[in-house]
Amino acid sequence: MSELRSEGSLVRYYCTAGNGMEPFLIDELKRKLAAEDVCQLPGKVLFSSSAGINRVRELKAAERLFLLLKQDSPVQLSAHILPAKAASVLQSRVLGDKNQWTSAVMTWSRLQGELAGKRTTVNTPSTALSVARKREEGRGTEELREEEEEEEEEEEEEEKSSEEKKSKTVTVERGGKLSREICGVEVQTLEKKRKRDDEEGKRMVMELSSCTQNGRKGMLSETDLYGRGSGLDHNVERSCRTMEHMAEDFAEKNVELVTTTGGSDKTLLPPSRIKPEPPSPASVSFRISCKCTGSLSRYFSTQEVSKVIGVGLSRLLGWKVDLKNPQLEVNVNLSDDHCLLGFPLTRLPLANRSYMKTTGLRSTVAWAMASLAQIQPGFFVVDPMCGAGTILIEAAQEHKAVCFLGVDIDDGQLQKANENVACAELGNRIHLLKASSMMLPLPSASVDAVVCDLPFGRKFGTKTNMAANLPLILTEMERVLCIGGTLVLLLSPQLSCLLKKLLAQKDTGPTSNQETEPQVGLQHRLPPPLSSLKHQATLRVSLGVIDGLIHKYVKKDT
């Protein structure tokens, strides 16, 4: 059982990652978080870090983030064991010691509190919401100060009126019994106020969601770039993140009941006066999320494993099972290689990008491709088949002092890219151009890095014969790339084999027959040799149903 240490010291986590993404995640962990005790399992990476949880959740190569509860050897059962005995062994091996569970829940609660601290705008009353909205619109500090003073005066008046109501309530008391009528009126009044606050919060969410509708529509020629940047301020990205956080934070509540000193009456307090308190270890509702493979799956189904562990956990800690809306989810992974338990730290996967309106290539893979390009400040980076612009946006999120250009021949794809760039507020650094990848309107040796996902598969494939056009596309990429520049391509297994054959050809000139043959269109143009591209790496990554291969090349001087 892993030890979960106090705040300010190392905490043990694990992340899930797509197949082939583990090396990228390990490199990111060491580089950004100075992670320690990094351990790789198939589809998972375990690590320890003292970095704040808000830094940890910014990981780009990870799919999901968990607090590690337990890493142990696999559960093994003998061939002739009785079912009851097998269930007992499973419970004993998986559950372990009660104190370690309670310690883990305390650490999880603390981390949830840190995450909630970044989302204080979620449950503020309507007056506070209006002030926050005006802050986002860039109003002056003096005006904000006046509004805050007015808000404090209103709150003082509310407190006074509340005290007056309480005093009236006491006068109605007869024979030690409190008048239920006045209490009922007070509760109804506060309940109406809470509903008004909720409606105001929902209206704010609707206003914030409008950030995704600011992408400009229109068609472009080869010489025109999409212009943007004046219609959005720098608060849109923060607003998008706020919406995601509203969905994630199940620990915060709109209203909390607080017992007064008398102990007999309860007062509804506005959430702005209360910090969200995590559940105590003795009152946790939970749900088991289980994945069981290997030999153990011959004894128990996944549902049976979940039931056995759930019943044992209820007996051990007194927790209650809640399959629909639990406070805590317990993730259990059992295989022939390991026994792994953890608590999810975010409701949504880390791979869900709040700054992306329309998804294209898997965001984690797009980030990995950008990281392979070794982008430096001052670079000019081009994606000649940009699609929805996922690669460029992921790269721009990491590298600030860099200029990016996305090229695509399809108007629909350019429109999606335009909307994504607008939502991510990157219009001043990402420009879009309509042109063919086989005839890029760029000078030779003018680009520092080319990063491209060549369309393939049912979802992203095109009507164009990509195999036939691959030599011409590569020729154009090589032409615009400067000496020492990096080329990163994502290909299907079939295109990967074709690329290797093309680059394996000897550097020979055209034959006499080819020289005299008339050229009609691009399909009959003979590509020049591609020997200036030096192979660096080929990495296989999972794209879901199918795999892709990332090729990295560096252009050398010939």
From TrEMBL:
Region (Disordered): 122-175, 261-281
THUMP domain span: 240-345
A matching Pfam family: THUMP
Keyword RNA-binding: yes
UniProt feature, compositional bias: Acidic residues: 144-161
UniProt keyword Transferase, yes or no: yes
Key words of the record: Methyltransferase, RNA-binding, Transferase
Domain of life: Eukaryota
SMART domains in the cross-refs: THUMP
GO biological process: tRNA methylation
Family named by the database record: Belongs to the methyltransferase superfamily.
Name of the protein: LOW QUALITY PROTEIN: THUMP domain-containing protein 2
Protein species of origin: Cottoperca gobio
